[in-house]
Amino acid sequence: MTENLSLKPGDIVPEFEMEAYDPVKDDYTKVSLAANKSQAKWTVLFFYPADFTFVCSTEFAALADQQEEFKKQGAELITVSCDTKHVHNAWRKSEGELQNVKYLMASDTTGKVAKMFGVYDAGSGLALRGTFIIDPKGKLTGSEVNFYNLGRNIDELMRKLQANIYLSQHGDEVCPAKWKHAGDKTLKPSAKIVGKIHEALKG
Q1: Closest Cα partner for 69 from 191, 161, 139, 202?
Q2: CA distance 67 to 183
Q3: Dist CA 173 CA 168 (whole Å)
Q4: Helix count (H) and strand count (E) of the chain?
Q5: Active site residue 56
Q6: CB-based contacts of 45, cutoff 8 Å, min separation 6
Q7: pTM of the prediction?
Q8: Which domains does the chain have, with CATH numbers?
Q9: Which pick of 15, 69, 129, 160 has the fewest CB atoms within 10 Å?
Q10: Predicted confidence band at 203 (pLDDT cuts at 50, 70, 90)?
């Protein structure tokens, strides 16, 4: 069974800090929401069940393919599981799917942060596949939770990140379902387009 979700989009995320493995420096470090906020960075938390597992390896490879784009968007990508930083270190060095990984791998050994976001599975002691987008002021702007057996689409995660960044700068607009990146059609809610969304999208 999982803990009840205590945070929802729009909430301010409480401060947290975790130990982490840094593949670039091949050393240990710490990650914190406060540090990202102080640098006006977006934070993308990517919870996963465990190191040395199957779907997780494929997700890590897909994240690595776009890790530079996360940086360009001003976001700090942090993967999180309940494994220790030492296990992260060993997995990164032994699994070929992780050979290009440069992002920080955080260790939530007590499950405290996973519980905060409602993705801690008390029955297994693992975290569900939860993805959370936090803006530079600490507000949760997006969330997604999958079960253990379903990998996430990183293209969709990038779309959500870019959409949230765009909307933070254009508060009077909304991004429709097929919005992909800045320059695509958006909508400005008003009485005039109620029942006329088709026409507004074509206009």
Answers
A1: 161
A2: 22
A3: 10
A4: 7, 9
A5: yes
A6: 78, 80, 113, 117, 130, 131, 132, 134
A7: 0.94
A8: 17-153 (3.40.30.10)
A9: 15
A10: confident
The residue-averaged pLDDT of 118-122 equals 95
Backbone angles phi, psi at 175, to 5 degrees: -100, 120
User: So what's the pLDDT on residue 5?
Assistant: 55
**∠ CA 182-186-191 to the nearest 5 degrees?**
160
What are the pLDDT digits (tens) for 91-104?
999 999 999 999 99
Tens-place pLDDT, residues 143-191: 999 999 999 999 999 999 999 999 999 999 999 999 999 899 999 999 9
Token pair belonging to 101: 């990984």
What are the backbone dihedrals phi and psi of residue 156, each rounded to the nearest 5 degrees, phi first? -70, -35
Task: Tell me if 13 sits within 8 A of 134, measured CB to CB.
Answer: yes
3-state helix/strand/coil string of 97-164? HHCCCCCEEEECCCCHHHHHCCCEECCCCEECEEEEEECCCCEEEEEEEECCCCCCCHHHHHHHHHHH
Q: What is the pLDDT of residues 30-83, one digit of tens each?
A: 999 999 999 999 999 999 999 999 999 999 999 999 999 999 999 999 999 999
Tokens for 60? 């890590």
Query: What's the CA angle centered on 133, arms 128 and 137, to 5 degrees?
Result: 135
